[in-house]
């Protein structure tokens, strides 16, 4: 073909010329047939010659790899000298040296290259043991260079190779968390006690760690999350029952076969002031005399606390109270003494308690022995009472009471009367009840004043107190009105004018108030005379009928009591010329009156 013509010849001179660039790799040898025509002869003579041309190779092709970048995986536990990969570069040059490939290796990072490449056949092998946990991957630059004689004419190509070192489960988990943990005893359920951490440098499941409690958790006090390693409380802790725990923890990876490690974790339960001090006795009893000097030893109390350290150190105090200042307790040893002279009647019982943060109480029943240092005390400074004068003999009119704060005979009270009561009253020496001893009469004595003595029964220097009692006798309507004059004689002139007072009656009633207020009335109504109810004045209403006039008027005097009492009087009225002689109808009057008849009965 015309395109394949690489040579031209000068038909006259026979010079051979290149008409096209030669390519050794396309055609390394040419055999040319040269036709020679001799025109000197006639006819011309033809002759043929063969020309053999060898094309010499020039290094005009670079070695080349099929890929620019390769990724190769190799397990980390392979032995030294293991074939990793075979590189194969091509070179288009024809001659031996121009196409002979020489391989070389460079590592992108610093450090010792764990791989080795054979310079002729391109095999990549391990030169040192591999460890993925130290070097996960290596970036290599692999170069392929031809071997042209003239080194300046040598050509090369390179590619990047990433060697991934594949993991093998060759590492056991390793604990990095502390083997010691502390937790206070009052934490809630689910409280995080410790975060257990174990590292496994292997990759994937080979480095995935789970956690398990092997021993020390027999009472199920803790629970361990096998994934996170979080150790939490599953039960309430109590330092006073168990002060520490030793848990054997296993960390195991997910490799095949699995590798594991164990660690003993010590958990110290820290004390919290959660125990109440307990007194050795719940009730302490003792006695001390009253009126002793301050500093008198009373008793020593003692308590214990199961807590530890400062939480078990106790401080003793007296509970707040009105008289707490009368005692002092040694805050360290619990000895109780007085700080003032005691008065049994003021305070008998005291309590003590433990430390301010957590406390316990015990009752101290302190009996203060009595001395007769109190007088009987009446409820009032004076008693006043009103009674009816018609009370029967022996009636209870008043209950007197006096208290004595002392104890026993020193506080037992008896009662007596002093001053003259005219024999009208007496008192019960035990109960203090005052009674009448005779019938009372207000009109004779309307008020009694006397004193009551309350004395204790002490056998040594008894003490006493007096109180005044005033008894008012209230009036009862037990007296009739009494006319000051009966009969009443009145002389009037026959020419006495109308509305003139012709006579006056007078009556008295010794009762009091309305019982003693007297009003007057005529028993028989009159047209000639009328009587003024209040004054007792008898008034002439019309002129007298004759000069020899005389009459008898019956006048009633009544008090104003609820059951009025009355009296009757006769008023004789006559003119001066006529004086009527008064005479009884009978010389003897006889009547029968039943016993127990009411006063004022007719």
TrEMBL record:
Its keywords, alphabetically, are: Calcium, Cell adhesion, Glycoprotein, Membrane, Repeat, Transmembrane, Transmembrane helix
This chain's source organism reads Colius striatus
- Predominant localisation class: membrane
An annotated GO cellular component of this protein is: plasma membrane
Put simply, this protein is called: Protocadherin-23
A GO molecular-function annotation: calcium ion binding
Superkingdom to which the source organism belongs: Eukaryota
Q: Which cell locations does it reside in?
A: Membrane
């Amino acid at each position: 073909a015309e395109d394949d013509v690489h040579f031209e010849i000068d038909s006259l001179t026979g010079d051979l010329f290149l008409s096209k660039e030669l390519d050794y790799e396309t055609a390394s040898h040419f055999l040319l047939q040269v036709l020679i025509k001799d025109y000197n002869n006639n006819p011309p003579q033809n002759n043929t010659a063969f020309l053999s041309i060898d094309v010499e190779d020039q290094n005009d092709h670079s070695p080349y790899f099929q890929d620019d970048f390769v990724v190769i995986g190799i397990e980390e536990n392979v032995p030294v000298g293991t074939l990793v990969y075979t590189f194969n570069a091509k070179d288009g040059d024809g001659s031996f040296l121009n196409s002979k490939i020489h391989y070389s290796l460079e590592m992108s990072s610093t450090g010792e290259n764990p791989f080795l490449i054979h310079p002729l056949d391109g095999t990549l092998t391990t030169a040192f043991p591999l460890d993925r946990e130290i070097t996960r991957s290596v970036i290599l630059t692999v170069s392929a260079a031809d071997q042209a004689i003239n080194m300046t004419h040598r050509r090369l190509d390179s590619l990047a190779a990433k060697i991934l070192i594949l993991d093998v489960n060759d590492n056991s988990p390793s604990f990095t968390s502390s083997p010691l943990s502390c937790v206070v005893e009052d934490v809630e359920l689910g409280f995080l006690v410790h975060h257990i951490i174990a590292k496994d440098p292997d990759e994937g499941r080979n480095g995935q760690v789970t956690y398990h409690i092997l021993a020390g958790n027999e009472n199920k006090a803790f629970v361990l999350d096998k994934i996170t390693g979080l150790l939490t409380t599953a039960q309430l802790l109590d330092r006073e029952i168990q002060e520490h725990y030793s848990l054997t923890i296993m960390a195991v990876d997910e490799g095949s076969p699995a590798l594991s490690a164990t660690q003993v974790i010590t958990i110290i339960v820290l004390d919290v002031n959660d125990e109440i001090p307990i007194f050795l006795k719940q009730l302490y009893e003792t006695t001390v005399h009253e009126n002793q000097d301050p500093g008198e030893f009373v008793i020593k109390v003692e308590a214990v606390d199961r807590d530890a350290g400062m939480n078990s150190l106790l401080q003793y105090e007296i509970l707040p109270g009105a008289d707490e200042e009368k005692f002092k307790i040694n805050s360290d040893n619990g000895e109780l003494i007085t700080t003032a002279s005691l008065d049994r009647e003021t305070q008998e019982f005291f309590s003590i308690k433990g430390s301010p943060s957590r406390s316990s109480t015990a009752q101290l029943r302190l009996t203060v022995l009595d001395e007769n240092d109190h007088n009987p005390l009446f409820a009032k400074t004076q008693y006043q009472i009103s009674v009816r004068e018609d009370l029967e003999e022996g009636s209870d009119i008043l209950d007197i009471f006096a208290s004595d704060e002392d104890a026993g005979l020193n506080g037992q009270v008896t009662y007596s009367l002093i001053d003259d009561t005219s024999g009208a009253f007496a008192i019960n020496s035990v109960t203090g009840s005052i009674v009448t001893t005779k019938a009372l009469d207000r009109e004779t004595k309307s008020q009694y004043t006397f004193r009551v003595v309350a004395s204790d029964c002490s056998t040594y220097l008894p003490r006493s107190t007096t109180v005044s009692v005033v008894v008012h006798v209230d009036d009862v309507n037990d007296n009739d009105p009494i006319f000051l004059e009966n009969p009443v004689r009145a002389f009037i002139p026959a020419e006495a004018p109308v509305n003139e007072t012709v006579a006056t009656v007078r009556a008295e009633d010794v009762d009091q108030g309305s019982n003693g207020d007297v009003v007057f009335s005529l028993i028989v109504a009159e047209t000639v005379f009328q009587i003024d109810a209040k004054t007792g004045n008898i008034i002439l209403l019309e002129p007298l009928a004759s000069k020899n006039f005389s009459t008898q008027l019956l006048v009633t005097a009544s008090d104003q009591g609820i059951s009025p009492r009355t009296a009757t009087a006769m008023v004789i009225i006559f003119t001066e010329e006529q004086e009527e002689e008064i005479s009884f109808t009978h010389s003897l009057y006889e009547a029968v009156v039943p016993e127990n008849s009411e006063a004022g009965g007719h």
